[in-house]
Amino acid sequence: MTIKVIIVDDQAMVRAGFAALLAAQSDIDVVGDAADGRQGVELSRRAHPDVVLMDVRMPEMDGLEAARRLLDPPPGVVHRPKVLMLTTFDVDDYVYEALRAGASGFLLKDAPPADLISAVRVVAAGEALLAPSVTRRLIADFAARPAPRRKGAVRLNGLTPRETEVLELIARGLSNQEIAARLVLAEQTVKTHIGRVLAKLSLRDRAQAVIFAYESGLVTPGE
Hints:
- The chain contains eleven helices and six strands.
- With about 220 residues, it is α/β, with parallel strands linked by helices.
- The protein has a six-stranded parallel sheet with strand order 2-1-3-4-5-6, sandwiched between helices.
- Helix 8 packs across helix 10, helix 8 packs across helix 11 and helix 9 (about 175-185) packs across helix 10 (about 185-200).
- The chain starts with a strand and ends in an 8-residue tail after the last helix.
């Protein structure tokens, strides 16, 4: 199955470079590009991509607002692409808000080409992806200004002890394979637990699971 991608970035050379790299892959089809967030939203509504590579800082409309419009569309709009945010800086202030808006992850623009290709495939498959430095930034944000613990702690009561354990390990940045090794489980069993956690907590993906774990107090920065 071919993954349809659009690239939204205000730098023409970046768009061209990413497009050439991705279009060379047999399973990826670049169906368009846009120079700002507003154009990106309009293009996505027309092209129905699977993945939108979205720059954070752009004129007219930034990537954060564009991501919000794509992931929380108005009535009548049913298409919701996966959004992978692209940033030059691993300390971008938009990290937290973009993930809360539903972005599937962040990738630094200077990442190796193979990482970009892999990221598109991972996000298209429904997984979340965060550059390690971005994950550290996210955790640092929680440590500096902890979010209020609202109803999250109550929602945790709906999880089984094993599901709670899996959620905690997700929040600590472990991969499915690492969680399986830690809990002595089959990797497919871990995937099943993660699916149940996301469904019970009404979360889109692992990125939102990380945020929920910190906001609910299940995991505390610095532990």
